[in-house]
Amino acid sequence: MKKKYIIQITAFLIIIVGIAVITYLPEKAESRGHDSPPTVFVHGYKGTINSFGNMLYRFEEQYEWGNKSLIYKISNNGNIRVYNLNKGRAEPVFIQVILENNRASFRDGAQWLSTVLSHMKQHYQIDNVNIVGHSMGGLISMKYIEEYQNNMEHPVTEKLVTIGSPFDGVYSQTYFQINHDAAATDLKPNSAALQLLRKTKETIPGDLEVLSIGSTGDLIAKPKSVNAIRMIIPADQLKTVMIENNQLGHSELHENQQVDQLIYSFLWK
Asked: Which end of the chain is more exposed for a tag (fewer CB within 10 A), N or C?
């Protein structure tokens, strides 16, 4: 009788745990696909192909939200190499942008992103995009939208997601004792580059939708700095989510399933 009771309790616990796991996992895309433009992913400071690599793998293989179709690699002099990975799967498609100089200024990063998006329009007839940027990638994407987006030369950006992007700069003094390059200069609080982002906010399209994601555990892009996006994007165009998790650090943001689900809900649901 005791053995039978233990078996019953164990089976019950397995069912409860199974339900919890199923509840937590992000939902899969509906089979009908999405009426959504391609989504461009831009890494942050010192980022590489691995920065969004795991996220895109989850999006494609685990959740079946779309397929990674293009990789753009941009050299220091602005030349681009394109890797076409299109597998003929359902929309939306994902496009990953890799900057060879991942410590460049906001100005250079935005100009290179402009070159990539112009190429997409000319060679792949992509007229509309969404952009997801992590950390400085979100700042570069914002600068691109402010200064380079042109309907004749570039796709229209419909939605922008910034993940751990410090719109008021990085507050840590230790950070700048280690990093001394052009990007680090731009990331300093009250830098000329950050001031310019706020000064040119009038050029932000009135129909652009923006989602800003941050974490209380991020020691690089602290909540106050992430929320400074409000000085650029009008309230009716902006959704902000600050995840209350002191264990969720800066780089962990693009490895987090809650962040995955927030992106999905904002871009494709």
From this structure: N
| Single-letter code of the amino acid located at 71 | I
> Of 184, 258, 179, which Cα lies nearest the Cα of 216?
258
Rounded to whole angstroms, the Cα distance separating 95 from 139 reads 18
What is the value of pTM for the model shown?
Answer: 0.88
Element (H, E) at 211: strand 209-215
Tokens of 158: 């419909």
Residue 114 to residue 141: CA distance in whole angstroms: 9
CA–CA–CA angle 198, 141, 193 (5° rounding) = 40
Determine the Cα–Cα distance for residues 157 and 266; give it in Å rounded to an integer: 14
Confidence band of 88 (pLDDT split at 50, 70, 90): low
pLDDT of residue 24: 42
Residues in the chain: 269
Within 10 A of 147 (CB to CB), how many other CB atoms are there?
17
pLDDT grade, residue 36 (50/70/90)?
confident
Ordered by where they begin, the domains of the chain are 40-268 (3.40.50.1820)
Say if strands 209-215 and 238-243 run parallel, antiparallel, or are unpaired: parallel
Q: Are 141 and 133 in contact (CB under 8 A)?
A: yes
